[in-house]
Design goal:
Elements: H1 2-7, H2 14-33, E1 37-45, E2 48-56, E3 59-68, H3 82-98, E4 106-116, E5 119-125
Parallel strand pairs: 3-4
Antiparallel strand pairs: 1-2, 2-3, 4-5
Length: 133
């Protein structure tokens, strides 16, 4: 019975991991085109991982990237729930504390990458958490 239950759990596949890596790469390219300087990728904390840390002019930006090959369960931006936002905020506080960056202006952006028929569509939402997103 336990084995049957585990077989229904959502476990990321190699293909899912590769899709995520591709989405992050596309997000970095898009952000760089917009003038962001990429400072870190895959910053790990005990709360999880920040996908991208970047600088946009004088603002430190923590970027969450969501990549989807289907919108059957909602688009990529819908996956950044309030709970996920709180985790990203905790990770950002860890980043700031470890680098002794107090008083630095920060914001949270979300990049949604939706791949349809092999073609990616990229949407960047700046200050996503500050706008009730």
């Amino acid at each position: 019975m336990v084995l049957a239950l585990h077989s229904h759990l959502c476990v990321p596949t190699n293909q899912d991991h590769e899709l995520g890596r591709t989405g992050e790469e596309l997000a970095c390219q898009e952000l760089a085109q917009r003038g962001y300087a990429i400072l870190a990728r895959g910053y790990r904390t005990r709360y999880g991982e920040i996908d991208i840390v970047a600088q946009d002019r004088s603002v430190l930006v923590f970027v969450e990237v969501k990549t989807r090959s289907s919108v059957a369960y909602g688009g990529p931006l819908a996956a950044v729930t309030p709970r996920k936002q709180q985790r990203v905020i905790r990770m950002a506080l860890d980043y700031l504390a470890r680098r002794r960056l107090s008083g630095v202006p920060c914001r949270f952006d979300v990049v949604g990458v939706a791949v349809k028929d092999g073609t990616p569509g990229i949407e960047v939402v700046t200050d996503a958490f500050g706008r009730g997103g």
